[in-house]
Amino acid sequence: MKRFNKIAIIGVGLIGGSIGLAIKNKRLAKTVVGICRRKVSAKAALKAKAVDIATLSYKKGLKNTDLVIIAAPVGRIVEIAEKVAKSSDGSLILTDVGSTKEKIVSHLERSMPNHIEFVGAHPMAGSEKSGVSAASKNLFKNSICIITKTKKTDEKAFNEVKTFWKKLGTSCKILSPKDHDDFISFVSHLPHVAAIALTNAANPGSLEFASTGFKDTTRIASSNPNLWHDIFIANKDALLRALSDYRAALEGIERSIKTGNTTALIDLLKRAKTIRDSLN
Amino acid sequence: MKRFNKIAIIGVGLIGGSIGLAIKNKRLAKTVVGICRRKVSAKAALKAKAVDIATLSYKKGLKNTDLVIIAAPVGRIVEIAEKVAKSSDGSLILTDVGSTKEKIVSHLERSMPNHIEFVGAHPMAGSEKSGVSAASKNLFKNSICIITKTKKTDEKAFNEVKTFWKKLGTSCKILSPKDHDDFISFVSHLPHVAAIALTNAANPGSLEFASTGFKDTTRIASSNPNLWHDIFIANKDALLRALSDYRAALEGIERSIKTGNTTALIDLLKRAKTIRDSLN
Fold it and tell me: In terms of domains, do A153 and A167 share one?
């Protein structure tokens, strides 16, 4: 892979900051610039050494940039991409790290000008923590990064984004935006809904008896509310389908408990154990 | 606390084995005997050094025993207690480690003969692993042990069981059997149902994208199917009530996503975050 001249990261929080640290660690670009919304974030990004330069100006940040990574909440990715289109003129590859893909990719494939090639990406790493102070150069190591591909995706840009994420230590998987949203609703968005509902449903008196089981199951209920609001809304259709499947699975267990159907209940428990055991 | 002459542990698996190791580590008894169902379990208990003596005979195991701990699945506790009653004549304290309490305690308070004082207990520690080979003398360290108390509970026996669990490193909490079952249904049994349903609902194609979020949320779906079948059935009433509250919490989130009600959705996310953040 060629070394990039300048990579711009828009939004230098946990994910953007970790990307910056990893780029610098792997020397994948001559310069890493962070484009921030507020002065305090720019200062924090510099302090964490996640970027070489931090600026609030898109014009300045995008000058001579060959790769731009939008590391903002899904609800803001499209508006940021359009600001990138207006503030740049040299050709560049644009990618994102959004947890939902169909709406973002189809919108940007229509709206981006010729000098910008957009490739959707979703590195599957994170933390219930947030902010550049929690960033780590190893956040993506041994994790999965999904790169989306459609009929309109530029082959060269796609390969560069894929190679970039490989260099950051991820295993890259290729999916259509729709398959991405369907699959991720089951393994990420639905578990968040389940964890939030478990936490909110718990009788307050019961919480002092919470042990590792409850704590592990609900860990992700501590995630950033605004971020997850955006994700739930952006992936609404796939998430509502997954929720409906989840409700059916819950009802199956509930019915077998209510009727004391030992065979059915043991079958459901064994099925879950077999699937879950296969994941480690 | 007086040192016990002989403590018998009936069922030397993960929990029973860890109790044996902890008793020996803390020198709480002159002898620890394991009463096992099968020769192979007796051998494994001895090999793990979880007990000093292992036997298949209740008569032999219970001779001169002052404390008996039933560490068997909840579905078997009552029948084992009745076997203890038949196979012993000296006075002894009987306790258990069952994850449900109301049915067990009310049954044994009626059926135990005068020479046996029963005190219900539930150490809130465990693992998705099972068997004496996974036992550890530190399993209970810094965990919670719930001891149940009713009008019929003998004060002296209650205090001895409480002191015993304190010596094993747990923080003891006192609850009525009904409160125990209600509270534990929320923080233990319901999360198991949720994890099993999440695992079973997941689109098979999605599993290769499972990351830490999914893995943590579903870890306990790997638990022993027979053990959890028994727990779900034994705590049926409280669990069905908790499931109904859980369904309402899920529906609240689902409705706010469906209607795009940002205020309601953010409120639910924030509420969960506040509660979950308070637990660490």
Answer: yes
Last residue of a domain, one of B125, B153, B175: B175
| pLDDT tens digits, one per residue of A21-46 | 999 999 999 999 999 999 999 999 99
Please tell me the total number of residues recorded for chain B in this structure.
280
pLDDT of residue B109: 95
| Alpha-carbon span B210 to B214, nearest angstrom | 6
Instruction: Point out which residues pair with A122 in neighbouring strands.
Output: A146
Q: With a cut of 70, which residues of chain B have pLDDT below it?
A: 1-2, 128
Residues A68 and A201 in one domain: no
Looking from the CA of B181 toward its CB, the CA atoms found within 13 Å total: 22
- Cβ-defined contact of A201 to B186 (cutoff 8 Å): yes
CATH code of residue A157: 3.40.50.720
Cα–Cα separations (whole angstroms), residue B103 to A204, B34, B37, B81, B99: 24, 25, 24, 13, 11
Same domain assignment for residues A152 and A197: no
Q: A269 is in which domain, residue-wise?
A: 180-277
- Statement to judge: residues B153 and B263 lie in one domain: no
Give the CA count within 13 Å in the CB-facing half-sphere of A134: 10
pLDDT at B2: 64
A272 and A166 together in one domain: no
Across the interface, whether the CB atoms of A273 and B221 are under 8 A apart is answered yes
Helix (H, G, I), strand (E, B) or coil at A151: coil
**For A131-141, how does the pLDDT look when each residue is reduced to its tens digit (9 = 90+)?**
999 999 999 99
C-alpha B223/C-alpha B100 separation (Å) is 16
- Among candidates B187, B225, B250 on the partner chain, residue whose Cβ is nearest the Cβ of A202: B187
Kindly state whether residues B151 and B212 are assigned to the same domain: no
Chain A: give the shortest CA distance to residue B171, in Å: 10
Which of A126, A152, A175 is a domain's end point? A175
H or E segment to which residue B217 belongs: helix B212-218
Say yes or no: B64 and B166 in one domain: yes
Contact B265 A226 (CB under 8 A): no
pLDDT of residue A280: 75
Could you read off the pLDDT of A212-239 as tens digits, one per residue?
899 999 999 999 999 999 999 999 999 9
